[in-house]
């Protein structure tokens, strides 16, 4: 698809100024630049920081955040000029409005003097509103903000943690591949030649998500289930269980592509939603029936819970110790950790902290994004 076709599609689909910037980033990706989701978010944040009054600042924000090589810079300049209907860098720009909104989306008539000059402020406000929403506690969101948050979950792109594989693969550096080197010499009748190298390949680690669905976690349940669904429909090998008064395996219902249908299906499969809390017993059942047989062995296990334990905290600490012994890494996500002045004083949290590798917050979209990075680097 050409850039012109992307702009025509944008004219029909783009409704908000923020989506104009997102459309530019994705058109740049279609032009051959490796624009990842992280770079896309950084681009929006940079534009919100520099403002849109100065088109040159927007131009340089894109070069700084979306490009990674000299070839990317050239593509960026070409796409920028075509997408925003402006001129190349180094020449006098025309109208800031025409540089920041595709011409096809402005309608048949050009804005007259004094008309349409507030569009850059709208773009700035939209990007700023998205940034504010990313950092708000999900329990304080309005209905409209929750709908916007659900859209942001669709942009989340979890990455799988990697582990070394048993197989070796060709590499430009590493260890000498004596067998391949010798075969090449034999093909040349013993004449020496280039040395072949090899290194260990890598494979994706499994991610196991254990979600506390007790009453104390009900305010965060919808967002956390959406996060689990995002993992289930990604390329990350994922298994999801819920912990309440019993253990429930909910991976299959969460593998539906539509997030709303997946959440409804998961809710129907969970018999103890917003019930009591027996974390220690649930973890014991998971380890005895699933974990020690291989599901948790060598995996990154993420536990979403505030640590309120109905049974003795020492029992919970013992089960997390067992979990840590078989897992590659244990990450504990507590939504309350993101609040100002939080201290881990609950008995359950104090019992598990010695056996946890990462103790992170889970109260906002920004916290969920940071969590995906913690898991990817595990």
Question: Main traits of this protein?
Answer:
Rossmann fold; two-stranded antiparallel ribbon; six-stranded mixed beta sheet; single chain; 378 residues
Summarize this, please?
By secondary structure, the protein is α/β, with parallel strands linked by helices. It has 15 helices and eight strands.
Gap between N and C termini, in Å?
A: 38 Å
**Helical percentage:** 40-55%
Number of helices: 15
Question: Could you give me the name of the CATH homologous superfamily of the largest domain?
Answer: von Willebrand factor, type A domain
Count the beta strands: 8
What's the arrangement of secondary structure elements?
Blueprint (H helix, E strand, L loop, with lengths): L2 H11 L3 H14 L6 H14 L4 H12 L3 H15 L11 H5 L18 H17 L7 H11 L8 E15 L1 H10 L9 E8 L2 E6 L5 H15 L5 E6 L3 E3 L9 H11 L9 H17 L4 E5 L8 H14 L2 E6 L12 H6 L5 E4 L3 H12 L2
Parallel strand pairs: 3-4, 3-6, 6-7, 7-8
Antiparallel strand pairs: 1-2, 4-5
Overall description:
- The longest helix is centred in the middle third of the chain and has 17 residues, at 119-135.
- A hairpin with a 3-residue loop joins β4 (238-243) and β5.
- The two termini are 38 Å apart.
- This protein is 49% helix and 14% strand.
- By secondary structure, it is an alpha/beta fold.
- It is built from 15 helices and 8 strands.
- Residues 1-15 and 87-119 have low confidence and may be disordered.
């Amino acid at each position: 698809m050409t850039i012109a076709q992307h702009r025509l599609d944008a004219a029909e689909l783009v409704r908000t100024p923020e989506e104009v910037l997102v459309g530019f980033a994705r058109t740049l990706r279609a032009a051959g630049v490796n624009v990842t989701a992280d770079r896309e978010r950084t681009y929006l944040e940079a534009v919100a920081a520099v403002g849109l009054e100065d088109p040159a600042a927007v131009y340089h924000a894109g070069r700084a955040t979306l490009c990674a090589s000299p070839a990317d810079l050239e593509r960026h300049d070409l796409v920028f000029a075509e997408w925003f209907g402006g001129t190349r860098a180094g020449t006098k720009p025309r109208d800031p409005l025409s540089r920041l909104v595709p011409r096809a989306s402005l309608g048949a008539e050009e804005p007259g003097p004094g008309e349409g000059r507030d569009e850059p402020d709208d773009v700035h406000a939209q990007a700023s509103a998205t940034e504010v929403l990313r950092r708000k506690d999900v329990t304080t969101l309005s209905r409209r903000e929750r709908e916007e948050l659900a859209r942001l979950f669709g942009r989340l792109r979890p990455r799988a943690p990697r582990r070394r594989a048993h197989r070796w693969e060709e590499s430009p550096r590493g260890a000498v591949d004596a067998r391949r080197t010798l075969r090449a010499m034999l093909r040349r009748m013993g004449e020496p030649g280039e040395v072949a190298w090899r290194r260990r390949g890598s494979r994706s680690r499994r991610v196991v998500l254990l979600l506390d669905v007790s009453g104390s976690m009900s305010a965060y349940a919808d967002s956390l289930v959406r996060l689990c669904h995002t993992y289930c429909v990604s390329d990350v090998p994922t298994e999801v269980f819920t912990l309440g008064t019993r253990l429930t395996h909910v991976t299959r219902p969460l593998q539906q592509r539509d997030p709303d249908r997946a959440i409804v299906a998961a809710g129907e499969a969970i018999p103890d939603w917003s019930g009591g809390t027996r974390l220690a017993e649930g973890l014991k059942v998971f380890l005895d029936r699933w974990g020690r047989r291989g599901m948790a062995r060598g995996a990154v296990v993420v536990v979403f819970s505030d640590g309120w334990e109905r049974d003795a905290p020492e029992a919970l600490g013992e089960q997390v110790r067992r979990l840590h012994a078989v897992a590659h890494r244990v990450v504990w996500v507590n939504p309350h950790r993101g609040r100002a002045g939080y201290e881990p004083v609950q008995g359950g949290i104090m019992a598990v902290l010695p056996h946890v590798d990462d103790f992170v917050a889970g109260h906002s979209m920004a916290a969920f994004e940071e969590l995906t990075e913690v898991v990817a680097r595990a």
